[in-house]
Amino acid sequence: MSFPPVERQLIVFDFDWSLADQDSDRWVFEVLAPKLRKKMKELKKEVQWTDLVAQSLKELHELGGTRQEIEDTLRIMPFHPAMVRGTSALKSRGKTTFFCLSNANIVFITTILKSKGLENLFDEIVTNPAEWDPSGLLKLRRRIDPSGPQHECKVGCSPNMCKGNALLCRLHAQEDEKLKPTTCR
Ligand SMILES: [Zn+2]
């Protein structure tokens, strides 16, 4: 594989339908609980997406869905082997910073990356926080807390995060004072 002669570069990835060949939020329910997936389609217009996934994860847990099942489902999600090869080869050259901006969540993303041997690919992942509680419930919440100040982006970002602002924060932290965003969260 040949690469252009660069000294340094930043590669910014979305996750669902870009690095990976599926949408992780939808995939989990399509595989494990088609009825919940159908309900999500119906509620999508009324409930903010991250809140809807969080609520659906609770319902899946109440129906007996386990952490193991969710993790196994994430590990078999479509992911092109050439993407693994390409990103790994580029990473190994040491000149590329990989940055992930995603509306999924940190547990889905890291579980999938680990299953592909890509757990060290990204220098930073900006997404919604999530954690397993001891009962096996995946507790997910918006990156931007709905009870606090909201982002002011007007280009159509979902309330849970502004990807443009997150990218500016990254660029600012990395190198360029001029790109200072208003707030970083
Ligand atoms: Zn935005």
TrEMBL record:
InterPro entries: HAD-like_sf, HAD_sf, Pase_PHOSPHO-typ. Its cofactor is Mg(2+). The active site is at D14, D16. Mg(2+) binds at D14, D16. One of its GO terms (molecular function) is metal ion binding. It comes from the Eukaryota. Keywords: Magnesium, Metal-binding. The keyword Magnesium applies. This is Uncharacterized protein. It comes from Trametes cubensis.
